[in-house]
Amino acid sequence: QVLLVESGGGSVQAGASLRLSCSSSSSTFSADAMGWLRQAPGKEREFVAALSWNGGSTYYPDSVKGRFIISRDNAKKTVYLQMNRLKPEDTAVYYCAEGTIPDYNDNWAYWGQGTQVTVSS
Length: 121
Fold this sequence. Notes:
The chain is mainly beta. The protein has no helices and 11 strands. It is 0% helix and 48% strand.
């Protein structure tokens, strides 16, 4: 069983930055794609970022492009999400996900428990 553990969430003012981390117990981490998705209250889960196994390809929706950066450290089995210039609409529970290929939807093999990010205006 693969365990993904997120950390780094919190409450910040608009314009601030946060960095989320996600540690994986997967034995195939270095060969897997990693992603971040989020879900705001009353809304469907939304794709935020994804990264190929070697970090060579990244994927972002327009809503976060230029503000968020996904990265990984395969030696530490950890993926990061650097979130800059945060906006109130970024408020959500952020989930880390792991799978064989990057996916814009919910087609990931493993999920973390989520970490809350709250951005106030």
